[in-house]
UniProtKB/TrEMBL annotation:
This is Catalase. It comes from Nocardia fluminea. GO terms for molecular function: catalase activity; heme binding; metal ion binding. One of its GO terms (biological process) is response to oxidative stress. The lineage of its organism: Bacteria, Bacillati, Actinomycetota, Actinomycetes, Mycobacteriales. It is an enzyme of class 1 (oxidoreductase).
Length: 715
């Protein structure tokens, strides 16, 4: 074949442009709809400047070595229809890189989402700890990752599960990681049992089902045999297992930690994160619908709220206890991670505030590659002998080495400390630093003796001397190894938790047990589940036994009545409505001005209006956010009916919002939807009036989370 037989589109290289012409990219430039969003730096703050500095978005496509690529859509072939040539290094490099794009997902907490923010200390902890980031007015950049525990990376957000709440503080004294959960107790007292509880909770190994669910035999087999899991199981079955939003979730450090003050005095603390928006949960039916309608609901909710300027905030607090050798407070063993200390006995003192202000720029680089380790500590914060925490001190570094491909994961930008690093660690997989000099050892003279040891009195991390209980023997049983009977008490705190809830909350918990145990195939496991329940509360066991069609067993443990802790219920107070969404239902006759007026009032109250209509596009100049084909009630916290289009999807929207206790308002013809659905216009959380009155009432209803009085007898 000669050159003139080859069609011009296959000639290689393509015909060069004339010398004076600009490069192809400069010729074309980005189209108006291809302009990138604002640039953000590692902390999420916008970077001013030219979009061409953004990694990978320079004007010219290149190979990884920087050679220009003219055609990335066609492989080099022997003739127009011939086989592909091995010589095409761009083809091979492009596909080889793609073949290696995935890293192992986290063994637990694989599904997560994260945000950048800032932590500001109020100084209240300054007398307790020498940690400088807790001194008055200290501001520390943070990266926070929220997660579910059991599901794979691609699983739904709204499943029933514990949620991870991991905070990385980039302090001037090194990175401090507080790797906590939204539930203050844990399934096990000893880390050695972690593989057991996770193997039981993860999908069953023969068919790998169910995904991201605890409603299956292996989970209930384990927790009913291993009764120290009762407390955590109760929290999981309660509304805490179904958060409405990561923004409305409490966080807990779970373990007791030790704070060390400047003068060496120590105290024991439990860490708490309290959301300014209140603790709020979804209803079970909502979570099921959302998992199908929008499996990314929590991820989207957090990112949208931050992008819209509704930075979520949490107060950081500590419960403080005297550091005694017994580690006991009011009879509660502080080294037992299956126990809480009620806030009524030890109030939570606020020591600072966390504010999440920016979304990650790249999910993989930041959210996926972030590596938390409970061993990332700063001077002034120490671990205790809690046997669960002690095992975690080993596990996280170990897992990062296999997950992130070697020991240099701390050099990944998201993990890089904001403090000088002079560790003398060298080489290893994915080493990206170019360390100069020869003296990677101590002592040395060739490096001028550097780095010097940090001073004990100043910046060094030095464990404070604490008494070690006399080792009488190597013991494996928890109760003996920490010398406390509290470890053997598995029911008094779940009972206290249950009795601290409102009747409505208790009913949710009873229904959750009925569902989960009902999904178990083994009757023996169901019976053990009832045994667990009757040891906590007779009425609860009675209800679930009825649902399962089994007899209620007799308790095999005494019911101990601790004082209820009202702080454990979610049903109190009213809260800011920041970032809540309200559907504005309109039709083709609705005036654009009327919609804009209501939207402005909602936006001024920091609520997000979303216009819903029969079709997309615009109506009288108002852009439609959701058509009837793309909306479902679970996306909204409230609805304002500005029109009453006759459509079964509108009726369904309002019926679901009614059933879920959401705020409903109607203006003018909008009231016809309520009439069709048989909804009482005077019911709690329902308002029919003029636009101004309805908007005001809707905001009040939103601040109370739901119209509880409509859906719960005792609210
Ligand atoms: Fe864990 C991840 C929280 C006990 C072993 N854990 C992980 C994450 C959170 C927690 C929030 C996700 C961090 C992220 O977003 O990247 N884990 C807890 C809490 C525990 C706990 C609050 C008890 C109070 N964990 C625990 C034990 C062990 C582990 C007892 C092992 C002995 N956890 C891991 C892990 C993970 C992890 C396998 C998986 C991915 C990772 O560490 O980075 O090492």
């Amino acid at each position: 074949m000669t050159d003139h037989d080859i069609p011009s589109e296959f000639t290689h290289p393509p015909t060069p442009p004339d010398e004076d012409a600009a490069t192809p990219c400069e010729q074309a430039g980005p189209a108006p709809d291809q302009q990138g969003p604002a640039l953000r730096g590692p902390t999420g703050a916008p970077i001013p400047g030219d979009a061409s500095v953004r990694a990978q978005q320079g004007p010219r496509l290149t190979t990884p070595q920087g050679a220009g690529v003219a055609d990335t859509d066609h492989a080099l072939k022997a003739g127009p229809r011939g086989p592909t040539l091995l010589q095409d290094f761009h083809l091979r490099e492009k596909i080889t890189h793609f073949d290696h794009e995935r890293i192992p997902e986290r063994a637990v907490h694989a599904r997560g989402t994260a945000a950048h923010g800032v932590f500001v200390a109020n100084g209240a902890a300054a007398s307790l700890t020498r940690a400088k980031f807790l001194a008055a007015d200290a501001r520390t950049p943070v990266f926070v990752r929220f997660s579910t525990v059991l599901g794979s990376r691609g699983s739904a957000d709204t499943v029933r599960d514990t949620r991870g709440f991991a905070v990385k503080f980039y302090t001037g004294e090194g990175v401090y990681d507080l790797v906590g959960n939204n539930i203050p107790v844990f399934f096990i007292q000893e880390a050695i049992k972690f593989p057991d509880v996770i193997h039981a909770g993860k999908p069953e190994p023969d068919r790998e089902i169910p995904q991201a669910q605890s409603a299956h035999d292996t989970f209930w087999d384990f927790v009913t045999l291993h009764t120290e899991a009762t407390a955590h199981t109760f929290w999981n079955m309660s509304d805490r297992g179904l958060p409405r939003s990561y923004r409305m979730m409490e966080g807990f450090g779970v373990h007791t930690y030790r704070l060390v003050a400047e003068d060496g005095t120590t105290s024991l603390v439990k860490f708490h994160w309290k959301p300014r928006l209140g603790v709020h949960s979804m209803l079970w039916e909502e979570t099921q619908m959302t998992a199908g309608f929008d499996p990314d609901f929590h991820r989207r909710d957090l990112a949208d709220a931050i992008e819209a300027g509704f930075a979520p905030e949490w107060d950081f607090g500590v419960q403080v206890f005297p550091d005694t050798p017994e580690h006991l407070f009011e009879g509660i063993d502080l080294l037992d991670p299956t126990k809480i200390v009620p806030e009524e006995l030890a109030p939570v003192q606020t020591i600072g505030t966390l504010r999440l202000t920016a979304n990650p720029e790249n999910f993989f680089a930041e959210t996926e590659q972030v590596a938390f380790c409970p061993t990332h500590l700063v001077p002034g914060i120490e671990v205790t002998d809690d046997p669960l925490l002690q095992g975690r001190l080993f596990s996280y570094l170990d897992t990062q080495i296999s997950r992130l491909g070697g020991p240099n994961f701390t050099q990944l930008p998201i993990n890089t400390p904001h403090a000088d690093v002079n560790d003398l660690f060298r080489d290893g997989m994915h080493q990206s630093a170019v360390h100069p000099g020869v003296a990677a050892y101590k002592p040395n003279s060739l490096g001028g003796g550097c780095p010097y040891a940090a001073s004990f009195a100043g910046e060094a991390y030095v464990e404070s001397p604490t008494p070690i209980p006399p080792p009488t023997a190597k013991l494996r049983t928890s109760a003996n190894s920490v010398g406390s009977v509290s470890f053997a008490d598995h029911y008094s705190q779940p009972r206290m938790f249950y009795r601290s809830l409102t009747t409505g909350e208790q009913q949710h918990l009873a229904d959750a047990f009925s569902f989960e145990l009902g999904k178990c195939q083994s009757e023996a496991i169901q019976r053990r589940g009832l045994q667990m329940l009757v040891n906590v509360d007779d009425g609860l066991a009675d209800y679930v036994a009825g649902q399962l069609g089994l007899d209620k067993p007799a308790p095999n443990s005494d019911n101990v009545d601790l004082a209820p802790s009202p702080a454990l219920s979610q049903r109190h107070g009213s809260f800011p409505v920041d970032g809540r969404t309200v559907a504005l239902l309109i039709d083709d006759t609705t005036s654009g001005d009327a919609v804009r007026e209501v939207s402005t009032a909602l936006e001024e109250a920091r609520v997000r209006p979303m216009v819903v209509a029969a079709h997309g596009g615009t109506i009288d100049g108002v852009p439609v956010a959701r058509s009837f084909a793309t909306m479902r009630s679970v996306e909204f916290d409230g609805v304002l009916l500005l029109a009453g289009p006759a459509d079964p999807r509108v009726d369904l929207l309002v019926e679901e919002m009614w059933r879920h206790g959401k705020a409903i308002g109607a203006v003018g013809t909008g009231a016809s939807v309520l009439e069709r659905a048989g909804i009482d216009a005077d019911a709690p959380g329902v308002t029919v009036a003029d636009a101004t009155t309805v908007t005001g009432t809707l905001l009040t209803d939103l601040s109370e989370h739901r119209a509880w009085a409509r859906i719960e007898a005792d609210a």
